[in-house]
Write a structure and sequence with these properties.
By secondary structure, this protein is an alpha/beta fold. Helices cover 40% and strands 23% of the residues. It has helices spanning 51-58, 78-81, 84-87, 105-116, 122-135, 152-163, 182-199, 210-216, 234-238, 243-250, 252-271, and strands at residues 11-22, 25-36, 40-45, 66-71, 74-76, 90-93, 170-174, 202-206, 219-224, 227-232. Strands 6-7-8-3-9-10 form a 6-stranded mixed sheet, sandwiched between helices. A hairpin with a 2-residue loop joins β9 and β10. The N and C termini lie far apart (48 Å). Bound molecules: adenosine-5'-triphosphate. Adenosine-5'-triphosphate (ATP) is lined by residues 22, 27, 45, 47-53. Keywords: ATP-binding, Nucleotide-binding, Transport.
Length: 278
């Protein structure tokens, strides 16, 4: 696994031979990864394996020691990925939401609009922000509120609304369900899935949340030993005998997530009306 030689579709992100280090600490070495257009790719790995650093490398916030990163079908250097024309095409939800505490939700959502389209009529910006608020399942009254007045789940949605401000093709989510209760996390997963479907988004999703992986990810990339050791569907990953993969997916939490998905599928099948023949 790792890089799929049979894949002939379009890779919206293509990373080859990436190396990142901080002083003596090598975080990535010879890391390869393809993210396919239209998929939700879950990115997992133990704490400190470099998931966030990988995301920062892709979006041009991290200088690599070696390797290439291509986005939207073009190999680009860090400067290229920082070019306005490229940055406009993706949205990022950083870990913790990273909302500006002195701005309202609506003003937070308008930050990218002001940055990339300063000539836009302020009334139109406010209208777009209002639309994004509703699109991410927040009540319209959340627009004039400050982040400190929101629940954890609402903050995540507000961060997502800001990431979607420019109608991106590509969405980066760094641990979007961390800190949410299971119901809030499941609702956020559903929102991500429905946005992927309706907007045709490609999603790079860093998570520790097994339920999220099972519920919405098309494929999962596993970071270990400084590189992506495997990419595939969960059943494909389960066939590998790497100790971290086995412990992660086949440990008690992994088994619980599998059982929960099986129960949901059973319920869905039971509710599906049987076809009447004759
Ligand atoms: N700016 C930095 N300066 C020095 N070291 C850094 C910097 N950013 C990240 N690191 C180190 O790189 C390693 C990978 O960090 P990263 O945040 O990508 O891990 P992660 O896989 O996202 O972890 P977690 O699951 O805990 O969020 C860590 O050891 C971290 O301390």
């Amino acid at each position: 696994m790792g890089t799929d030689p049979t894949f002939s579709g379009e890779a919206i992100i293509r990373v080859r031979g990436l190396k990142n280090s901080f002083g003596d600490q090598v975080v990535h070495e010879n890391l390869d990864l393809d993210v396919r257009k239209g998929e939700i790719l879950g990115v997992v790995g133990g704490s400190g394996t470099g998931k966030s650093v990988l995301m920062r490398s892709i979006i041009g916030l991290q200088s690599a020691d070696a390797g290439t990163v291509g986005v939207f079908g073009k190999d680009t250097d860090e400067e290229g990925r920082n070019a306005i024309a490229v940055r406009k095409r993706w949205g990022v939800l950083f870990q913790g939401g990273a909302l500006f505490s002195t701005l309202t939700v609506s003003e937070n959502i308008q930050v990218p609009l002001r940055e990339f389209y300063p000539e836009l009529d302020p009334l139109l910006m406010a209208e777009i922000a209002g639309y994004k608020v509703v699109m991410t399942g927040l009540p319209a009254e959340a627009g004039p509120k400050y982040p400190s007045e929101l629940s954890g789940g609402m903050k995540k949605r507000a961060g997502l609304a800001r990431a979607l401000a420019l109608d991106p093709e590509l969405l980066f989510l760094d641990e979007p369900t961390a800190g949410l209760d299971p119901i809030g996390a499941a609702a956020f997963d559903e929102l991500t899935k429905s946005l992927q479907r309706t907007m045709g988004l490609t999603v790079f999703l860093i998570t520790h949340d097994l339920d999220t992986l099972y519920a919405i990810c098309d494929r999962v990339a596993v970071l270990a030993d400084k590189r992506v050791i495997a990419v595939g569907t969960i059943p494909e990953l389960l066939e590998l005998d790497h100790p971290w993969i086995q412990e992660y997916f086949n440990g008690p939490r992994g088994r619980a997530a599998t059982a929960a998905i099986a129960r949901t599928e059973e319920q869905t099948n039971a509710q599906t009306p049987k076809q009447v023949t004759g």
